[in-house]
Design goal:
Blueprint (H helix, E strand, L loop, with lengths): L2 E2 L6 E2 L2 H12 L6 H21 L3 E4 L12 E5 L7 E5 L3 E4 L9 E7 L3 E3 L4 E7 H11 L4 E6 L12 E5 L11 E5 L2 E7 L4 E2 L24
Parallel strand pairs: 7-10
Antiparallel strand pairs: 1-2, 3-6, 4-5, 6-7, 8-9, 9-13, 10-11, 11-14, 12-13
């Protein structure tokens, strides 16, 4: 199966090459859980600082008060739950930028990622665990959610930046056909880097018109 992305030469193709790339990475010394956790927390802290430098604010999301679970969660409607609601895993950070109306905010799932490459074909991509995409999709049903990645080596590659971002809505099946593989026994999606934009482009995106405002409507019939 071949999949050609929108911007050559970033082409994701045969399964064998992807698996060879993964196996090559697997042979490298693996960080301990605590080391990976520390790197992830550092990435979240740096993201918050970058948002502040862009003129915005960023807030970490904590666990449910009184819960024994340390994983941050949010409540949302659930028709199949007798309580009428359920708890779902929260993204990492809630943030706002200066061009957003007061009271409006977005969410970010922040990850330090390992760059996957095939230099012979110019492939650049990252792996995304299916469960993590499902968690982001759940949050994206109710809020604007961005998947933010930090890859330090991208700063040395023309056309890319160390910090890249994609709107989770753009990863929906009806918008993007993602390759799915089993990596280390886990269902995993392959995300080409041309799906992402530099983090700084968040300030350039069009904003949805606020639903509750006293200002006259700017579109549609009066």
């Amino acid at each position: 199966m071949l999949w050609v992305t929108q911007s050559p030469p970033y082409v994701l193709s045969d399964r064998g090459s992807e698996e060879r790339s993964y196996m090559s990475a697997k042979r490298k010394p693996q960080d301990s859980f605590e080391t990976r956790k520390a790197k992830g927390q550092e990435a979240e802290n740096i993201f918050m600082e970058l948002i502040a430098l862009m003129g915005g604010t960023a807030h970490p999301i904590g666990p449910v008060p009184g819960s024994r679970r340390s994983t941050p969660r949010f409540t949302c409607p659930a028709a199949n739950d007798e309580r009428g609601f359920t708890y779902a895993v929260s993204p990492d950070i809630v943030f706002s930028l200066p061009d957003q109306p007061k009271g409006m905010a977005s969410f970010a799932q922040v990850k330090m990622k390992q760059l996957q490459t095939d230099s012979s074909k110019g492939w650049l991509y990252v792996f995304l665990d299916e469960k993590e995409l499902h968690r982001m999709n759940t949050a994206a049903r109710f809020s604007e959610v961005f998947f933010v990645i930090q890859i330090p080596e991208l700063a040395e590659i023309d056309g890319f930046h160390e910090w890249m971002v994609v709107n989770v809505d753009d990863l929906q099946e009806e918008r993007t056909s993602l390759l799915k593989r089993h990596i280390a026994g886990k269902p995993t999606f392959v995300l080409p880097l041309d799906l992402f934009q530099p983090l700084s482009d968040l300030k350039k995106r069009p904003l949805n018109e606020p639903a509750n405002t006293n200002a006259p409507p700017t579109s549609g019939r009066a």
